[in-house]
Design a protein that fits this description.
The protein is of the alpha/beta class. Helix content is about 30%, strand content about 20%.
Length: about 230
């Protein structure tokens, strides 16, 4: 069975109603990155940071996977599908994808706020809220969202890199490829790999000739991609 790697970004979840960060009316227009998405922000005002992610988590819990998420899951019928996502939501899992690697964390999980731990343990969050005064790790530190903030390393990057390096098919969907180092994954695919880029602005991207561009929304593009793969 061929290995098909899906690399997804905010665009696939935007169709479910989840606000993106980089659009003109996105979340960064309402909050400064420095105030809610850095280790320094947590050190300065953990209450604000916790409230920001509690609101994001609540929105995600009340959101459903869309046709694009479901189409990715359907591909498992014919391929060994591995999903690598930049998204912190769990919509791929809820749509039925069985192998999902979160590069930037999973907002439905929490971890210790101790920055000096030599390993990370993740705690499922019941409901939509973390409470600084009630929710603690085993060592007694307040729990923080399992989210990779600006200025932090991307622990899952090495695993993602290895996953991509032996792909037979590679699908990029809903990402502007502006966030590094993760955007560099497109340069890790092997020479034999057939690659596809699904995005309404696909024509504007400068990509290698390995990529077939599909200038459509995530849902439309995934349906088109499935038809292409079935015709081969």
């Amino acid at each position: 069975m061929q290995k098909l790697v899906v690399f997804s970004g905010a665009g696939i979840s935007a169709e479910s109603g989840i606000e993106t960060f980089r659009d003109s009316d996105g979340l960064w227009e309402k909050h400064r990155i420095e105030d809610v998405a850095t280790p320094e922000a947590w050190a300065k005002n953990p209450e604000l940071v916790q409230a920001f992610y509690n609101a994001r988590r609540k929105a995600i819990i009340h959101t459903e996977p869309n046709a694009a998420h479901k189409a990715v899951a359907v591909l498992e019928r014919d391929f060994d599908v591995h999903v690598i996502t930049q998204n912190i939501d769990d919509l791929h899992e809820r749509a039925g994808s069985s192998k999902v690697l979160h590069l930037h964390g999973n907002i439905r999980l929490a971890k210790s706020s101790n920055p000096y731990l030599d390993h990370e343990e993740y705690y499922p969050i019941e409901g939509d809220r973390l409470d600084l005064n009630k929710d603690f790790c085993k060592e007694g530190f307040p729990l923080r969202p399992h989210v990779v903030w600006f200025g932090e390393n991307v622990p899952a990057y090495d695993e993602a890199q290895k996953c991509v390096q032996d792909a037979d098919l590679f699908v990029v969907i809903g990402t502007s490829l502006q966030v590094y180092p993760v955007a560099g994954l497109i340069h890790e695919i092997p020479l034999h790999c057939q690659a596809y880029y699904v995005d309404p602005k696909a024509a504007q991207q400068s990509l290698s000739t390995q990529f077939f561009k599909i200038p459509m929304t995530a849902s439309q593009g995934m349906q088109h991609l499935i038809q292409l793969l079935q015709s081969k």
